[in-house]
Write a structure and sequence with these properties.
This protein has 15 helices and no strands. With 365 residues, the protein is an all-alpha fold. The N and C termini lie far apart (136 Å).
């Protein structure tokens, strides 16, 4: 045993230190691998620095381009304002309208996403969101004809000409100047008020055919009072509410001419068959009724002046030339009536757009 150990030690001594160390052929790949990793780490850091610097340079370039574009646009608008003031008004109105429309679409998408996530119907939305959806739907319907006209090639020039000469008929509200907004609202109200006498005549004729004498006399007295220039009380309207649900004055039993006149009051086309006219009229009146309940939950006092005037205008009152206090008093009266009525009494709500707004400048009797 001792001899074997000595022989082993002697053998190791004869082999030399190379036997105790790994071969050079094994060390070279390991060293190369370590060096390659070090080089890769350094190259990665350098590439990351280059990437960051390139991003910073690209951002600076984009910021410089945006600043230059804004400067050019500002100089261009100043030139237009000095040399072509009328065209500048159209240009600025169009620019502001595009921005407002973009924000409107963004808000509508947010509301739609909220309805989808929370599984809400339109009637469950707050007042402002419900009103936004209603107005946006009407804007889209109004923009459909001009979109169809613009489909053929080179039709854009025709569209621009039509939009210039017929802004009220073709442009939506975002592209109206403040002066045009007042003019166009007055023009639409003039068209609407032109149908008020026809509605009252049709209502008086329908009242004569009612079988019950006492309600018939109350309704005839109410029609004569409004036709004479007086403004009715809320109690007078509620006293005849039963006549508008199951009798000849219900929406589904009105004469066709009567329905057409009411459709014009709500800015609905009268050129449809009688069934569609009645269905559209009822759906729009019930939509206003849902809005009224949401507005009552919000509180009329929470509305801004612009929202207040728009709410009155939708319900039949031309609020463009009335004071804020007058608009608020009229809207509160309307809400008291609307929230008292049932869905089956939608006909009275439609007629109240005429009965309450025709002589509002006159004192009540």
């Amino acid at each position: 045993m001792a001899l074997s150990r000595a022989a082993a030690r002697g053998g190791l001594w004869r082999l030399g230190p190379s036997a105790l160390s790994p071969p050079r052929e094994r060390m070279q790949p390991q060293l190369a691998l370590g060096l390659s990793r070090a080089d890769a780490g350094g190259w990665g850091r350098r590439s990351q620095v280059r990437s960051l610097s390139s991003r910073a340079a690209s951002r600076a370039l984009v910021a410089a381009v945006v600043a230059a574009a804004r400067w050019v646009n500002t100089r261009y608008e100043q030139y237009l304002e000095r040399s072509f003031p009328r065209f500048y008004i159209l240009h600025s109105t169009f620019k502001t309208g595009i921005q407002a429309l973009f924000l409107e679409v963004k808000e509508i998408l947010r509301i739609k996403s909220k309805m989808s996530q929370q599984r809400l119907s339109t009637q469950q939305l707050p007042y402002r969101e419900m009103e936004r959806l209603r107005q946006f739907r009407r804007d889209v319907l109004k923009a459909i004809p001009i979109g169809i006209i613009a489909i053929p090639p080179f039709a854009n020039f025709l569209v621009i000409v039509l939009m210039y000469f017929f802004p009220r008929q073709l442009l939506i509200r975002q592209f109206w100047t403040p002066k045009q907004q007042l003019e166009f609202l007055d023009a639409y109200d003039c068209i609407r008020r032109g149908w008020y006498p026809a509605v009252l005549r049709s209502l008086a004729l329908a009242a004569r055919a009612l079988p019950e004498p006492q309600p018939r006399e109350l309704l005839q007295q109410l029609c004569a009072q409004v036709q004479g220039g007086a403004r009715p009380h809320l109690g007078q309207l509620l006293a005849v509410r039963g006549l508008f649900s199951g009798s000849l004055l219900a929406l589904n039993r009105l004469q066709v001419d009567h329905v057409r006149a009411l459709s014009q009051v709500l800015f609905l086309t009268p050129h449809l068959p009688a069934f569609f006219l009645r269905h559209r009229l009822r759906s729009h009146v019930l939509e206003i009724r849902h809005l009224d309940r949401a507005l009552l939950h919000l509180g009329p006092g929470q509305l801004s002046e612009e929202e207040l005037r728009a709410a009155c205008y939708l319900r039949g009152l031309n609020s463009t030339h009335l004071g804020q206090a007058e608009c608020r008093a009229w809207l509160e009266q309307w809400l008291r009536l609307s929230c008292e009525l049932q869905a089956s009494e939608a006909s009275l709500l439609a007629h109240s757009m005429v009965l309450l707004s025709l002589n509002y400048s006159q004192p009540p009797e």
